[in-house]
């Protein structure tokens, strides 16, 4: 997925100088696991920025360690090799999205509201993590095990959406349609925003998600043969 | 836009050995302009393949000339620098698409049929030129003049789609909706197929385009508040 020019400009502007290392100073206090996760996240952020701006192949582990302001040895300790960094970026996205999607499916909301919330979840993830979204287009460089894991997580997200659509059909709220085509149409609408959405644009993500859901639910025709 | 794994496999399989140069042999007969265009197209094909498989930054003009089986000097004569090759790929796509889209807009078809045909035009272009589609995600490397030209062509395609949607609303065939949101939803549905469509899959592009158009036109709800 391409990144919108507006995001690119924002990215270029916010590229901070490498964090200063302070040898000899006492370490910051806090739970060790929190510190570990924060460091790991900082490395993934740096990698996602570089993958987005320069491309995956053109970015070296040395580039990432410089961007994150740490040594290569420290980087390997926290995140491992370049394909492992890419896998970690993918997993972070999936692990943020799937519990929310499962929660929507299992909620008491109406099928049409579940559909709108599902679309909003996808679109808000893209809004929150534009560089991670862009980095995910490099999925062909994942190692086989990580690629398999991502396919399974993608399949789970697909199953959740199909279940929401089927529930709507079974309850008579939706008319019968090709569930797979509908799922792919919905995924396209949601994911395409990564190419055009501007954080400073006239519409917010919740507004766009609701607008898309309304168009999708009601359709464009003012009269329809199936009703 | 990412390229579907099925297309990647096909691409890897069809990578032909460099065309043999036959110095001293008489040149093939035919109109010089045809020969010129065929040569140019062969270079663009080679470049699009490499941009897709390796990425734009990781591909050199030398790589492209080798893949096309010609010298770098010959390549420069036909297509120019790497950003100029990228611009030529973009233009070839736009120049194939825009006349067809304009023809659809100016035809006597109903608004709903025009919409379905517009979506089919987008999707068939992606089907015919998967590597060109994938190469277009590198548009950030276009030189300023070429980038401006592409923005204008993208704007023209947007104007055509907006005109089709507005015509449907004006004629009362469509109910009033946010035309910009609808256009972006339609673009997402159409363009996303580049990430999942398989040429050997169960559905053809015309079937998918018609299925998408039906879902979009009729909507998912079996009853709708605006009717």
Describe the structure.
By secondary structure, chain A is mostly helical. Chain A has 2 domains: 12-17 and 31-80, Arc Repressor Mutant, subunit A (Orthogonal Bundle), CATH 1.10.10; 83-216, Tetracycline Repressor, domain 2 (Orthogonal Bundle), CATH 1.10.357.10. In chain A, 69% of the residues lie in helices and 0% in strands. The first copy, chain A, has helices spanning 5-14, 32-54, 61-68, 72-79, 82-106, 111-128, 130-135, 144-170, 179-196, 205-218. The longest helix of chain A is centred in the C-terminal third of the chain and has 27 residues, at 144-170. Mean pLDDT of chain A is 86; it is low at 12-28. Chains A and B meet through α9 and α10 of A and α9 and α10 of B.
SSE blueprint:
The structure is a homodimer.
Chain A (H helix, E strand, L loop, with lengths): L4 H10 L17 H23 L6 H8 L3 H8 L2 H25 L4 H18 L1 H6 L8 H27 L8 H18 L8 H14 L9
Helix pairs in contact in A: 2-3, 2-5, 5-6, 5-8, 6-8, 6-9, 6-10, 8-9
